[in-house]
Amino acid sequence: MTTQSTQSSFTLSAFGDEIVADLEGQLEVLADLKIGYLDLRGAWGVNVLRMDDDMAGRVRQLCDQRGIGVACIGSPIGKSPIADPPEKEQANLERIFRVAERVGARRVRIFSFYPPAGASHQEFDGYVEEVAQRLTRLAEMAGQEGFVLVLENEKGIVGDTVARCHRLLGLVNSPHLRFAWDPANFVQEREADVTVRGWPLLGPYVAHVHIKDASLAHGKICPAGAGDGQVVELLAALRDSGYQGFLSLEPHLLIAGHSSGFSGPEGMAVAARALRKLIAEIGCEEAH
User: pTM (2 decimals)?
Assistant: First the structure.
């Protein structure tokens, strides 16, 4: 791919709990890899939603000591059944906001709810409007408190495909609900040529990007550029749009679980090298 100059720049972040459980170890590896930001999903084996004020304050203290910021809260909000009362996730989001304030983050990752058990993939469309109503309320809460929610596409959830993500974002139509693009999750929903097809629809909403890739043939997770997620095409589209934001490494190279993944220190280093190679290939710059 030919290179070109650009006004765009990418800032690397990473899901620290993919490295080790202890925050101290997470930050040490990020510092060694010259990655200046953390996507906070868990520390010391505790999910961000379960952190009390003291623990969140300790996260901030350690991050400040290392000179590493928190790019985004990797919350589990919306990774829950649509059958649950809406008030449950609204209360959880209020707690996440308090954690985010403690650690100095204004961006929160969320999801778009699981349909009822047994619903066929074709039946997911029937839940889009109900999910949009829930997301609208969450976005209103974010606006009232000065946060931005970034909606991640996720397999097996109502917002799983390009079409349904686009419909959800359009129905909510809020500056406080943007999109977190995850290439591998699209691939695992059998979405081919996802950047070519998806960027015209979702590009205007993108405010955060997760970096992991996957194979259409068997769904296995792999480093960026080694699968069918069209990651290099995504980076080029971001470059050409003038994107100034985060690329958050979430490699899942050893374990790809329901609520989290794991890569280990070596896996995170592999993932960072793969991403930096693609950034250089498209002629873009990494911000520090």
Answer: 0.94
